[in-house]
Specification:
A hairpin with a 2-residue loop joins strand 3 and strand 4. Helix 2 packs across helix 8, helix 2 packs across helix 13 and helix 7 runs antiparallel to helix 8. The protein is mainly α. It contains 13 helices and five strands. It has a three-stranded mixed beta sheet. It has a two-stranded parallel ribbon with strand order 1-2.
């Protein structure tokens, strides 16, 4: 076990802006990528993670560790899970860094022959996670709603927020396990899809997510009935029509994330690296 059970419970009960796709979505992306790794990339991944840890298990580790004590997990690593831009073109990372800056940093660690095994394990787990994060439209946030966390909605009558809908509710709508969902998506990824999606430039993924992000916000809720007190607006109600409209897009982003993760790891490990 990598972290205490109480920490896991805290993660489940108190959603954070830094969580993307939820556990199912991240594992789906990693499972799809695992089917498309080159032999050399697979050898390096297995050498770094060691026996007993699969790529899909590694995918959620950076979120699980957010409950760990210490400045690294409680402060330093928090902004590495997302980027913020008002348009669709990535400009630059803030002073504290962001997902793209972290992805670049950890990629260099994996290719550094002098990096320790522990540093490479940290780097690989983050890379697997961050490629997934950048394919979640609301992790390419705009000012100033915390990636949709401040956008209150109801999901089939239950209060939640837009970010949580994209993290988990849409992904888990069919109540499939991560392996079932990954297998379903893999069956529908054509050779043409792989060719079109095989892109190792994270800035392209960011621009795609930003374009999608601007379409997923619900219309404002129906105004309160005449005579209602205050100026509060009715919270948007999301249910079957929202699922019908965005479920295919959610599945495409998971599929693209899996293909891009494989492409990214294959490119990182395109040449043999010295074994330590």
């Amino acid at each position: 076990m990598r972290f205490p059970a109480l920490a896991a419970l805290a993660v489940a009960l108190f959603p954070s802006p830094a969580l993307a796709w939820g556990k199912t979505g991240h594992r789906v992306i990693a499972a799809i990528a695992d089917t498309q790794l080159s032999g050399l990339a697979r050898a390096h991944v297995e050498e770094i993670l060691g026996p007993g840890e699969s790529l899909d298990e590694a995918a959620n580790w950076p979120d699980e560790m957010r409950s760990a004590p210490g400045a690294f997990w409680q402060k330093t690593a928090t902004p590495w899970h997302y980027v913020t831009l008002n348009g669709i073109i990535y400009d630059h990372a803030p002073t504290e860094g962001d997902a793209l800056e972290a992805l670049d940093r950890f990629s260099k660690t994996l290719q550094d022959p002098n990096a320790s095994l522990a540093d490479k394990q940290l780097a690989l787990r983050f890379i697997v996670h961050l490629v997934g994060d950048l394919h979640q439209p609301l992790h390419v946030g705009k000012c100033c709603d915390k990636g949709g966390n401040d956008v209150k909605v109801t999901w089939f009558g239950k209060p939640t927020n837009l970010h949580a809908v994209w993290d988990s509710q849409l992904v888990d709508d069919e109540q499939l396990s991560f392996s079932e969902l990954a297998a379903k998506l893999e069956r529908h990824i054509s050779n043409d899809d792989v060719i079109k999606w095989w892109d190792v430039n994270p800035r392209d993924w960011i621009s795609e997510s930003a374009e999608i992000r601007d379409t997923v916000y619900p219309a404002p809720g129906t105004p309160p009935v005449k005579g209602a007190k205050g100026k509060a607006k009715k919270i948007p109600e999301l249910s079957y029509s929202y699922v019908y409209k965005f479920h295919p897009m959610m599945e495409q982003r998971l599929s693209q994330g899996g293909v891009r993760l494989a492409a990214y790891l294959n490119a990182l490990f395109a040449q043999p690296l010295p074994a330590k």
